[in-house]
Amino acid sequence: MAQTDSSHPLRNRIKLERARHDLTQERLADLVGVTRKTINTVETARFVPSTVLALKLAKALHTTVDELFYLTDEQ
Amino acid sequence: MTATATMTARSRQRLGRMFDIALFAWGAASATVLVTNGLNDARQAPGWPRWLELTYLIGALLAVPALLIAGWARSRLKKLGAVLDDERTQATHTRAMATALVGVLAVQLPFFFHIETTSVAQGKFTVAAALLTYGAARLWFNRDA
């Protein structure tokens, strides 16, 4: 299941990158074709996106997936 | 972002929430009807008491407009260009279905303890539990962060 809570080790820099590109959650959602709430839940680590969505987010934010997402406690 | 665009975004959020609430209202109304019907079957009452008829009427009055509002909100959202379904909404649906399954199984528990009822009434309780737990779970999983 891709949905999770904030205790999941996957974190991201979406909020930072959004701010850098002056994008709102709504605008980013429009760019990648998802709902604003999906962006919000990915940003707050409540939802782990699929590879496709991660790639779309990275492309929209002019960065790479491994720069956008990282693990806090790699096993 | 312009003020108009912000208002549109807020309208979309409000309409999206309204859609979920309307869907839940429809589920709750249907579940109410099923439960009262099931209770009546379980009691094997000869006729419909007035209060049960009233519940049916209220259920129908809630269900029909809720369904119409949900349909209208959905088409309006699509016209606004809103994305209604994505991988998170699909995951939410899957989780809500799993919760509904738990609800359906939980509602069977009393029937293991020699509770005498007809299979029709049990069926109605089961469907009511599925509707209610699915709707409630959907609202919970779609809550704002």
Automatic annotation (TrEMBL), chain A:
Pfam families from the UniProt entry: HTH_3
Domain HTH cro/C1-type: start-end pairs: 14-68
DNA-binding keyword on record: yes
Keywords: DNA-binding
Entry GO MF terms: DNA binding
InterPro entries given in the database record: Cro/C1-type_HTH, Lambda_DNA-bd_dom_sf
Protein name: Transcriptional regulator
Organism name: Actinoplanes auranticolor
From TrEMBL, chain B:
Domain of life from the UniProt record: Bacteria
Keyword terms: Membrane, Transmembrane, Transmembrane helix
Transmembrane annotation, as ranges: 21-39, 51-73, 94-113, 125-141
Protein name per the record: Uncharacterized protein
